[in-house]
Specification:
382 residues, mainly alpha, Fic-like fold, 3-stranded antiparallel β-sheet, 58% helix
Length: 382
Amino acid sequence: MKRITGTHAISTTLGEPVRAFVPHPLAPTNPELAPEAYADLNHQAELALARLSGVSGLVPSVDWLLYSAIRKEALLTSQIEGTQATLTDLFDEEAGFVVSNTDDVEEVTNYLRAFRLVQDNLRDPNGLPISVHLLCEAHRVLLDGARGAGKQPGELRRSQNWIGGTRPGNAAFVPPPADWVGDLLGALEQFIHDETGTLPPLVRIALAHAQFETIHPFLDGNGRIGRLLIAALLEHWGLLEEPLMYLSGYLKQHQAEYYRRLSIIRTEGDWESWVAFFLEGVATAASDAERSIISVASLISADRRRLLEDPKAGPASYRLFELLPMMPRFTIERVRQRLETTFPTATAAVKVLENLGIVTEMTGQKKNRSYSYQPYIELLSR
């Protein structure tokens, strides 16, 4: 029996009647999700997340891992929407270097700010819980700037939107009419905070993300806020204490399938294949992140050993080395500021790392030189 996951509402948009899809509240019914459809995949995904949490102890500072993981997620979730920025662009912007694609980089840094806003609220006893209010605040930050100005930042849409096509009449998908959005999001919020259900947390996250994308409550930024919701729920339900996984890498790699699986929920009532795809994605992304942490830990450990064995190394070069994982591109002036030292001391510290081949000078100039911890950046960019 085909499961019905929603109804259609007729709305008039741009002078033509349009069939907009209105999803039923979660969780799926008639029939309910069968545990055998997800139990094994859910177990594998939970194990992969537990291994990822465990491996973070391999490095002296979890902040190093978070620095790169959060930036990779910000970058990849933005690339799904067509942003062209790279990880190097992001590091360059943070180092104060000139970047050519400033609008693209701004979109990625806005996502980082939106992510931090959500995380800070969830970790503050007086902060906002996961809610429509919090997602609107995140949306306001995400669309702050040139590209988002006309897209009602922080506000639920007041007009009909559509996905694909040039107008609602020839669109691939038409989300619910604007006057349904508030109630639908309210029901989604209720589902997230309802503790009486029996579905495992990862399955609930899969359902919540799909439902959010179906409601498509904003004029722009729905994909990024919907994927931010995944990260927030992973922490909220204790599946990953720190955001070390970048699921958007998997979703970007399988982008056509990602959209197809969301689509067949609406057209065929097939929640099972979406949930399976999502759980496979979590298991793969967690394993990828685990391997990345092991590679980064090995690189940093080997470079540190070489530095400690160098007779010319001193306290300033040791301190600089410990900063590199969170400052992979830099100038001597930035080193001077971070070490709170003199320019000659900063220059000497950089020289030690350069002579060991740990960092590379990038300009070839005598003045205004800039440096890169290139092996580390290449490892993260794989």
